[in-house]
Amino acid sequence: MTTTTPSAPGRAQRTPVRTPARAVRAGRAGGQHKAGPLARVVLGLAALASLFPLYWTLVAASTDGHAVVSSPPPMLPGGNLFENLSYVWHNAGGRGMGVALLNSTLVAGAVTVSTVTFSVLAGFAFAKLRFRGKKVMLGLVLSTLAVPAQLSVVPLFILTKNLGLSNHLGALILPVLVTAFGVFFMRQFLSQALPTELLEAARVDGANSLRVIWHVVFPVARPAMAVLGMLTFVQSWNDFLWPVIVMNGSTNPTVQVALAGLGTGWSTDWSVITAGALTGTLPLLLVFVLFGRHIVGGITQGAVKG
Fold first, then answer.
1. Is the pLDDT of residue 161 over 80?
2. DSSP assigned state of 160
3. Tens digit of pLDDT for each residue in 192-248?
4. Which residues pair with 6 in a beta bridge?
5. Alpha carbon of residue 85 to chain centroid
6. How deeply is 127 buried, as exposed, middle or buried, from its count of CB atoms within 10 A (0-12, 13-18, 19+)?
7. Closest among 235, 224, 289 to 107, alpha carbons compared
8. In a 3-state reduction of DSSP, which class is residue 194?
9. CA 275 to CA 90: how far, in whole Å?
10. End-to-end alpha carbon distance in the chain
11. Of all helices (H) and strands (E), which one includes residue 8?
């Protein structure tokens, strides 16, 4: 970088100006800095601490019931992993873990699709549309977040029983087709990420409300949809309280309900329980491996656009 200073009439002398090396390094790669040794050590320790529960579950699932509760506990995998997994696969929930995994996939998938779709539509309405009573309705939606979920179990159970949905997978889907958190999350995102001028331009081009939502709102909301979809899927997959109440005595349970009956008898077999927990966790890990990069990429793309 150089500047010009007048030295004589009609002449200009160029004087070099040094740019600080720190600013040059910060300007490279979008201002990102290289991680130092301390940061690498801290991140490595955090990664090991996060993976240790999964490793211990694998160790406990590969031993027998007596070794799990021994002191000191085993720290290396044993030789009973496939035996315990086979028992879980054929005996969990009465009809086997395969049926439970299929039921959980259907329930979590349906809840995720409906929650994301309705949350985007409601969030867009609260963020960009004008209608009477909008603030009051939004306040009522947010007020439901302050109500503990346990308080709604009894009236919800009575309602599902009167509708004939007891011991039916529909009882796990209908009450959570949309959540107040999802509506608020999408409303906050679209309020900042969706310019009003973009909507006005689409209206000027002759787009109706359906085309605006499909071609403008959904593409802009894609990063937030990915995050909300992942959170909803994990929460629905791990839900236990409501499924164990409404599916009590059912031969068509979800994963969490099927795991509740494992290892029971004269003595609790913790190796079988951890083998079932490992089986129920693997689909979530697979989802993260397959779609984690797309979710992070969507978040980064949304941040850059913002």
1. yes
2. H
3. 889 989 898 988 888 888 899 999 999 999 888 988 998 899 999 999 989 989 887
4. 12
5. 27
6. buried
7. 235
8. coil
9. 12
10. 31
11. strand 2-8
Tokens of 249: 């005595």
Question: Which one, of 300, 283, 265, 302, lies nearest residue 87 by Cα?
Answer: 265
Residue with tokens 């720190």: 22
Q: Report d(CA 186, CA 286) in Å as an integer.
A: 26
* Token pair belonging to 91: 């005996």
- Pair type for strands 11-16 and 2-8: antiparallel
Specify whether the CB–CB gap between 191 and 127 falls below 8 A: yes
Length of the chain: 306
Contact 118, 181 (CB under 8 A): no
Which of 212, 230, 247, 240 lies closest to 287 in space, CA to CA?
A: 230
Q: Taking a C-beta distance cutoff of 8 angstroms, is the pair 300, 222 a contact?
A: no
